[in-house]
Amino acid sequence: MNLKMPVIIQRNFPAGTNLNSGVYFYTLYAGDFVSTKKFILVK
Fold this sequence. Notes:
By secondary structure, the protein is mainly β. About 0% of the residues lie in helices and about 40% in strands. It has no helices and 2 strands. It has a two-stranded antiparallel sheet. A hairpin with a 2-residue loop joins β1 (about 20-30) and β2 (about 35-40). The protein is elongated and about 35 Å long. The model has no long low-confidence stretch (mean pLDDT about 80).
């Protein structure tokens, strides 16, 4: 399966950054491998 998704927001968060509670998506790139995952941050 070769799906491409547009990047709506691209931000880097330095370690220790205070993030709000919510749903976040992250993408891992390694050579030809690309994986997008979702995580939920609850404070």
